[in-house]
Design goal:
Length: 129
Amino acid sequence: MPTEQKLNLPGQIIEGTVQGTTKFGAFIQLENGTVGLVHISEIADTYVRDVNDYLQAGDRVRVKILNVSEGKVGLSIKQARERERPKKVDKGNLDDKLNRFFKESDERLQSLKLTKETKRRNKSYSDTP
């Protein structure tokens, strides 16, 4: 009886197991048995010097399929995470942030104006004989 394999489609997010790591990425075995590569630049949002700092053989990870060509599957852990956590904008909170920004900006401008005025006063005193 033939087993039904799931197709790997770009944009799809699925689970996989880390099979091994190299200095340029990690090989992930997907749920349907296909093995794909997560390039080192697609592991985390920060600079990854060593893949082993982030992934070990046997780890379960969620990955996004980036591309499938000639039997090779390109994967991303970083992009799978971004999709899980959409950013929300709270309108009330935005108003509070704007008010704080304007208040702090006015305070900074006042301190700059005072500094300039003090310098001008000092120059006028030093210029008189």
